[in-house]
Amino acid sequence: MDELIPSGAGIVVGMPRVLLIEDDEAVRNGLSMALGGRGLTVEAVATGEEGLAMLASRTTDVVVLDLMLPGLDGFEVCRRIRAAGDLPIIMLTARNDDIDVVAGLAAGADDYVVKPARAQVIEARIRAVLRRSGQPSRPVGPGIEQHGDLGIDRAGLSVTKGGEPVGLAPTELRLLLELSQVTGRVLSRQYLLESVWEHGYFGDSRVVDACVQRLRAKIEDDSSAPVYVQTVRGFGYRFGPL
């Protein structure tokens, strides 16, 4: 099933296509109607299995995914979508619980919204992740930078490790480009939220931490002892090797 899931939204043309996976019928119908009235095309299903099948047969720009689903839960659905590509995922969680939020972000979600949430809030989050996925970075200069065995091509928006291409989701690439242009300098989580996600972004630092974890898993030899993206406890992150 995974290999059939489209790899990502890319640049969205026309009305954004949203797949809503939500088992609560009242919430599902209410959000479908409200988001449809706000200029989005919404397909809605009740289970993770239905959602994965829909992704295999339809073009989708963003997934809005409830975590607490019957059968195949939202965490597993998120992992399967993310393993197949960089399709933006916004998770819905019933409570602002650190464990649920961190687990969802670690599974690959790009953002989260705590229920109950107004349709305009969810719409704003959808449009924000679509802007980020359609514009992966701001090129800062020509040429390929070499940092140890990590090569960063800012103009070409590509990364290699040991000469082999590294597949990064748009937000992971933006984060790496932001950190690596100031090697050795500590950047706070709040700065990264505003520069990598967007100015005025109203998420929290757990989104940054989860993205750092996913980035490390792709560019570090040992993500538990990172060389490139290093944590400066109490301050933020910096790019090495120093």
From TrEMBL:
Q: Which InterPro entries match?
A: CheY-like_superfamily, OmpR/PhoB-type_DNA-bd, Sig_transdc_resp-reg_C-effctor, Sig_transdc_resp-reg_receiver, WalR-like, WH-like_DNA-bd_sf
Q: What SUPFAM superfamilies does the entry give?
A: C-terminal effector domain of the bipartite response regulators, CheY-like
Keyword terms? DNA-binding, Phosphoprotein, Transcription, Transcription regulation, Two-component regulatory system
Where the record annotates domain Response regulatory, the positions are 17-130
Q: Name one GO molecular function term.
A: phosphorelay response regulator activity
Record feature DNA-binding region, as residue ranges: 142-241
**Transcription listed as a keyword:** yes
For this protein, the record's CDD domains field holds: REC_OmpR, trans_reg_C
- Sites bearing 4-aspartylphosphate, chain numbering: D66
For this entry, the protein name equals DNA-binding response regulator
Q: Which organism is it from?
A: Amycolatopsis regifaucium
Q: What is the lineage of its organism?
A: Bacteria, Bacillati, Actinomycetota, Actinomycetes, Pseudonocardiales
